[in-house]
């Protein structure tokens, strides 16, 4: 079995536990998810199986979209609703829609974030959440992330209440922490804040409408339709630059040979999808030491793809 399971991850399960359950249901060994969702978060979690596990890194780098609830007036240790309260400030004023939209605009585009202490970012070989659990202070590395869209999903003209909450939709690039974004929005408005709810509505070009629950996957397996629910690799790599090869080159690609860069890909620095007979058979990238050449990063098992 090769392809992507478009899983709708339920609340209360870790992403790793979801992968283990997929392996058991499909009776397979090779499976991996394409970007961790916290246990208390539901949403789109593409799970790659078989040869599709070779594209996990490309899907991890792809854009994602979330719907989040920002709550002003309360800050927590984890920057979400799961943590202990560390700061409170009563929201005593009314915030206009214009002021809130201006703050959201200021957080759109390339911004700098400092990952939360309760995160999986590594510092000196150790994850930040491990330092946090041991109560060890550590300097966290800031990094640039990209917010493609930040939309207010609330139609109120004035926002008041204590605490005060509103919903946003965030389309962002790799490595963005929505929890940290919520805290930053609160700071700009003059209040401690946290992310009180989060749902991922798209990832790697897969939207919530295309996703399946575990119950639906179990039914498909029981009815012998397991392969029918797999999305092909081509669906999620369709946005990569395309290199269409002929039969002669296919043999070289199968053996991991270098390829001359075709004219239409001369300016590409990132990954390139190599297509043959309507399928993606490899992912290549510009060779840093050989000008004008592409080198293989991932080559799929041709026999398994074409002889099933």
TrEMBL record:
CDD domains per the UniProt record, alphabetical: PseudoU_synth_EcTruB (cd02573)
UniProt superkingdom: Bacteria
Keywords per UniProt: Isomerase, Lyase, tRNA processing
Active site: 38
GO biological process, one term: mRNA pseudouridine synthesis
Signal peptide: none
Gene Ontology terms, MF aspect: lyase activity; RNA binding; tRNA pseudouridine(55) synthase activity
EC number: 5.4.99.25
Residue ranges of every copy of the Pseudouridine synthase II N-terminal domain listed in the record: 23-178
InterPro entries: PsdUridine_synth_cat_dom_sf, PsdUridine_synth_N, tRNA_psdUridine_synth_TruB, TruB_C
Matches recorded under NCBIfam families: TruB
Function statement: Responsible for synthesis of pseudouridine from uracil-55 in the psi GC loop of transfer RNAs.
HAMAP family: TruB_bact
Designated name of the protein: tRNA pseudouridine synthase B
């Amino acid at each position: 079995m090769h392809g992507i399971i478009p899983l709708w991850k339920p609340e209360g399960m870790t992403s790793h536990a979801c992968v283990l359950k997929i392996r058991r249901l499909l009776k397979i060994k090779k499976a991996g998810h394409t970007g961790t969702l916290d246990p208390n978060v539901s949403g789109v979690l593409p799970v790659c199986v078989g040869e599709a596990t070779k594209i996990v890194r490309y899907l991890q780098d792809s854009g994602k979209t979330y719907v989040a609830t920002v709550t002003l007036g309360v800050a927590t240790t984890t920057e979400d609703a799961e943590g202990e309260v560390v700061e409170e400030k009563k929201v005593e004023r009314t915030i206009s829609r214009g002021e809130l939209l201006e703050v959201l605009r200021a957080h759109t585009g390339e911004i700098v974030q400092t990952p939360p202490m309760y995160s999986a970012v590594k510092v000196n070989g150790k994850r930040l959440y491990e330092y946090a659990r041991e109560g060890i202070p550590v300097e966290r590395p800031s990094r640039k992330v990209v917010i493609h869209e930040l939309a207010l999903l609330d139609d109120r003209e004035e926002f008041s209440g204590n605490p005060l909450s509103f919903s946003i939709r965030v389309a962002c690039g790799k490595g963005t922490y929505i929890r940290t974004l919520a805290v930053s929005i609160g700071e700009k408005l003059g209040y401690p804040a946290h992310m009180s709810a989060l749902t991922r509505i798209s990832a790697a070009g897969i939207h919530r409408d295309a996703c399946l629950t575990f119950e639906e996957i179990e039914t498909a397996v029981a009815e012998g339709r397991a392969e029918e629910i797999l999305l092909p690799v081509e669906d999620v790599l369709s946005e990569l630059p395309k290199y269409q090869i002929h039969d002669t080159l296919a043999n070289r690609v199968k053996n991991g040979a270098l390829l001359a860069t075709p004219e239409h890909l001369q300016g590409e620095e990132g990954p390139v999808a190599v297509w043959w007979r309507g399928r993606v058979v490899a992912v290549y990238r510009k060779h840093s030491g050989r000008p004008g050449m592409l080198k293989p990063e991932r080559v799929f098992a041709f026999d398994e793809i074409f002889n099933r």
